[in-house]
Amino acid sequence: MNWTGVMPAMTTAFDKDYNVDHSFVARHSQWLVENGCTGIVCLGSLGEAPTLKFQEKIEILKTVVTARGGKAPTVAAVSALSTAEAVDLAKAAQAVGCEGLMILPPYVYKGDWRETKAHIAAILKATPLPCLLYNNPVAYGTDFLPEQIAELAAEYPNLAAVKESSTDVRRVTAIRALIGNRVAPFVGVDDAIVEGIAAGAVGWIAGLVNALPRESVDLFNLAAAGKTEEAFQLYRWFLPLLRMDTVPKFIQLIKQVQQEAGIGSARVRAPRLEVVAEELAAVRNAYAYAQASRPAIAKASTPFIL
Q: Domains in the chain, ordered, with CATH?
């Protein structure tokens, strides 16, 4: 498991009956890797994990592992209301061939550090798989401070990376200052990627990549190579779309961009509903403007063929 590069938090495709569309999921994961992504993260927030039954999660992981054929790792996001279910999911992910885990804090219950650490530790001890800790205090109300990440890293060797979605790139610097290269820092919000890389991040768990993978990979590579002028030229063009990753309806918006790009449908499971009226018009206008104003540096992704 090489924790670096652009790894999509892949959306979960649904058919017209709102069942998981495994054929699309398989091809989507293949297409993302064909366009330069270094791994696939399944069952995350963007994958609508809370709306998926346990067995649906396992079947999605099987589909992606099979579709990838060893060409890129599959990372399973582990989230649940209970520690027991999270441990069961981690073990099942290993059993079906996943190469890594992304660990979320418990849903709903916001415990103190003693409780939260016990939950994370149980998952880390459940398998030998390398793990990425997901820190998103904005969405989940649990904030893994740099000192707490350092504490976990000192005790659990398979904690290999952290997805920093606090929106504060200073967290990347703080983690580096405490533990150096012990864990690989990833940026988890699309509209902070260039700043995050400048602060020391080595990877990106990305959202808009689901529709625009080549553009996302090129942006990451330019920023990582220190080509600041080219990176910001691409970044400025991309930002109106990237900002859709950081609002409450990010799932609906990103899936709508996929539909506008011909990469699947905008279907989401309730309680979410597809965007309509002014929100729908805004997404369509932003995507149309991006296509019309695409600079030469923004190379298009290869055509998606199901």
A: 5-292 (3.20.20.70)
